């Protein structure tokens, strides 16, 4: 769950570094939350790979169960690094 929180913080940091629009900074994560249902409806395999399955995946692991697969953890870590790289590039261009 900590990785998911870090991913969302990195996403907001990247968006705020790349744009001045507060609306975009709020809208993109909301579209990600709402759009999850649409994406899973069209591509059911995406839920097993992307970061949305980290929440449901944590319950059985905390109860002592087996980890189903490393896919969501790896993709969330990669997406977090991409967001942090985008934030670093955006902050270098921006005058604070």
Describe this structure in words.
The chain is mainly α and 96 residues long. Helices cover 73% and strands 0% of the residues. It has four helices and no strands. The chain has helices spanning 2-18, 22-42, 54-62, 71-93. The longest helix has 23 residues, at 71-93. The radius of gyration is 15 Å and the shape is globular.
- Could you estimate the helical fraction of the residues in percent? over 70%
Strand-residue fraction? under 5%
Shape: globular
The CA-CA distance between the termini, in Å, is 32 Å
SSE string, helix = H, strand = E? HHHH
| Major sheet | none
What structural class do you assign from the helix and strand content?
mainly alpha
Overall pLDDT level: 79
Which stretches are poorly predicted, pLDDT < 50 over at least 5 residues?
Answer: none
Rg computed from alpha carbons, rounded to a whole number of angstroms: 15 Å
Count of beta strands: 0
Number of separate helices? 4
Brief rundown of the structure:
This protein is mainly alpha-helical.
What's the topology here?
Blueprint: H1 2-18, H2 22-42, H3 54-62, H4 71-93
Helix pairs in contact: 1-2, 1-4
List keywords for this structure.
96 residues, mainly alpha, 4 helices, 73% helix
């Amino acid at each position: 769950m900590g990785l998911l929180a870090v991913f969302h913080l990195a996403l907001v940091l990247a968006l705020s570094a790349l744009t001045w629009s507060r609306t975009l900074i709020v809208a993109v994560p909301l579209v990600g939350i709402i759009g999850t249902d649409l994406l899973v409806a069209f591509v059911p395999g995406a839920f097993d790979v992307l970061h949305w399955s980290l929440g449901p995946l944590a319950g059985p692991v905390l109860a002592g169960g087996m980890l189903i697969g490393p896919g969501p953890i790896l993709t969330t870590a990669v997406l977090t690094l991409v967001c942090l790289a985008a934030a670093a590039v955006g902050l270098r261009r921006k005058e604070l």
